[in-house]
Amino acid sequence: MAGESKTVAPTAAVKIFSAGAAACVADLVTFPLDTAKVRLQIQGESKASLESQRVKYKGVFGTIFTIMKTEGPRSLYNGLVAGLHRQMSFASVRIGLYDTMKQFYNRGSDNAGIGIRLLAGCTTGSMAVTFAQPTDVVKVRFQAQVRLPECGTAKRYSSTIHAYKTIARDEGIKGLWKGCLPNIVRNSIVNCSELVTYDIIKELILKYDLMTDNMPCHFTAGFAAGFCTTIVASPVDVVKTRYMNSVPGQYGGALNCAITMMVKEGPTAFYKGFMPSFLRLGSWNIVMFVSYEQIQRCVERIRRSWTSPLGPA
């Protein structure tokens, strides 16, 4: 990231570990907002199940309150285990390898233009989705399932492992990679929006001495990254959520899902759950980037103390 040239930059291994750990911290803090976002996004989709028709969600906090009232507070964390699986494998690649890919495309130079940064963001975002997609599918399925105990509604999946096994058995291995293409598109956009925005804003802050390379700087750049990402990625995110949560045969593909939404619900459907998306992405980016920068520094200090136990001569 920008601003590392003044000190010795952390190694790629440190960045990969720090990115995964920071993303898990951010998920733990913001997961209820993500669950609310998913419920709002799938509300009103074609062939909606009876359970989802019984519960109507209005607004971010209204959705959270409704879920707590009808299903219990634990339902806000449905899919958390899969979410943490996802972040450890997904964020480690898309965020942890960003600087490495930037240097690769720029032939080792740290002074990368915006084109190189966008290319690096697209590359790591695509790489991450390619092998972490099953964790995202399971997370979305868990967040979308509605539990209404008084109606005797059976849960779609009883545990994370059960979800992996059930999807593989009923839909084939391909079912675990359902929505992979729209997710690659979505995460390439998200990665570019998040990382490039954060990189540029942080670089400008440090260049003009508006702040030092510390928490206020990371907070400001992280908030800007979250806002830009929500604006750009919301339509693709809604289509991705709808398609990954759909039953077999409901949509002919991601494009068919988007067309169905446009015809039956209109263009505003693509921005369903926008407010929770912004609250979630804004807060997620702030927590993640602040944690990422601090964890990097902490791990790097520990690593250097191990390699130089006696300290300087």
Question: What does this entry look like structurally?
Answer:
The protein is mostly helical and 313 residues long. Helix content is 71%, strand content 0%. The protein starts with 11 loop residues before the first helix and ends in a 6-residue tail after the last helix. About 3% of the residues have low confidence.
Offer a few descriptive terms.
mainly alpha; 313 residues
Draw up the topology in text.
Elements: H1 12-42, H2 50-54, H3 60-71, H4 80-94, H5 98-105, H6 114-144, H7 160-171, H8 173-176, H9 180-207, H10 215-245, H11 254-265, H12 274-307
DSSP helix count? 12
List segments where confidence is low: pLDDT < 50 over at least 5 consecutive residues. 46-53
Main sheet attributes: strand count, strand direction, barrel closure:
none
Our estimate of the beta-strand percent is: under 5%
What coarse outline follows from CA principal-axis ratios?
globular
Order of helices and strands: HHHHHHHHHHHH
* Helix/strand class: mainly alpha
What separation lies between the terminal Cα atoms? 31 Å
How much is the average pLDDT? 86
Number of strands: 0
- The amount of helix comes to over 70%
Instruction: Kindly provide the radius of gyration, computed on alpha-carbon positions and rounded to a whole number of angstroms.
Output: 20 Å
Question: Quick recap of the structure?
Answer:
The protein is built from 12 helices and no strands. It is mainly α. Helix 9 (180-207) packs antiparallel against helix 10 (215-245) and helix 10 packs across helix 12.
